[in-house]
Specification:
- 0% of the residues lie in helices and 54% in strands.
- It is built from no helices and 11 strands.
- The radius of gyration is 16 Å and the shape is globular.
- It is an all-beta fold and 146 residues long.
- Strand 7 and strand 8 form a beta hairpin.
Length: 146
Amino acid sequence: MSTFVSGWLDRRRVKFRSIILFDGARHWFSGKKKMKTIEVEKSKAFIIVEIIEYVPNSVISKTIIKKSSGNVTAEAFDAGEELTEKTSPFDTFSQVIDGNAEIVIDGESNFLSTGQSIIIPAHSRNIVKANERFKMISTVIKSGYE
């Protein structure tokens, strides 16, 4: 059974269109992008590519670990999806773990296949595009920028 609500997501003070609760998991939607927020259990082995699933017409993000000094996130992009252009004050290490990705850094396209990685430099404009579906891990380290 699912429950749909809309309003403010209190913890993050983020306006959302709806939250769906089903199978004990919470999902929130903002526009057409679906974000799934579930953290990985510590001290248990897992296969990174299997902990996140593709969802049609969506980008799914799953926090592996989040600390004040940085975070590690797994993401699954369905074909045709992309993240809007952004900049970060920190370097971001991105590794494709399934499929092929296009990562545009300051207007230059970089095409990555499974197992390939790239570092997106701090303060660079970047876009992540899914010309086909893919999964990746993003790691942001915030220390050293004081």
